[in-house]
Amino acid sequence: MPQFPTLAPSSLSMGSQSNNYISKSIGGVRQARRSGTTLLTFDASFSKLTRAQAAQLWGFIQAQNGQFGVFDFAPPLLKDSLSSSAPATATVNTAAAARQSTVILGGFVANKTVLNAGDLIRFANHAKAYVVARDAVSNASGVATINLAFDLIRPLPVATVAGLKNVLVQCSLVDNEQNQSISAPFFHSLTVKLIESI
Q: How far is CA 155 from the centre of its chain?
């Protein structure tokens, strides 16, 4: 799968998009339904690029043919766990079912905060990246229960590898139309909107 250029953006905002349906009855009772999973979104702005820097980025964006292409994106500063105790990978210790939001992982150092709320995690058999809902602390055996912000979209067999560092998010462009601006003295600027595409 192609990977988004590693050029660091001047600003990056991360968000999410959920398909929720909320209604209230005449008596004021709230009813909520959820369809599908929550998708991660990114707005990456690049400013004051030289022509050579912009060319690499612009060529990649054009090669996606608008919303058609799918690629991996490594969000700067967010692709690695905030915890210095997090290894590059861990493994699923106990099988987990689809629609479950807790996962038991092994392979951590003992008795440490191994993942922090907001960290990204991606399992080897999933195209989806997940967000850790709250800090995870390992036990004396190096095993930790991870609470995910989103339900699993498919089962996790025992020994599935979980990527905790250099996590790639599978994305596509949000829009079919892309633009860049050039201003004196010939600096290029552009903003790219991405959405997770699973």
A: 19
CB-count exposure of residue 196 (10 Å: 0-12, 13-18, 19+)? buried
Cα dihedral: 145, 150, 155, 157 (round 10): -30
CA dist 27 → 22, 33, 34, 89 (Å): 15, 18, 22, 50
Which distant-in-sequence residues (6+ apart) come within 8 Å of 65 by Cβ?
none
Q: What is the mean pLDDT of the chain?
A: 94
Give the pLDDT of residue 183.
86
Of the candidates 166, 163, 167, the one whose C-alpha atom is nearest the C-alpha of residue 146 is 163
Mean pLDDT for the stretch of residues 77-106 = 94
Q: What percent of the chain has pLDDT over 90?
A: 82
pLDDT band at 49 (very low <50, low <70, confident <90, very high): very high
Neighbours of 191 (CB within 10 A): 16
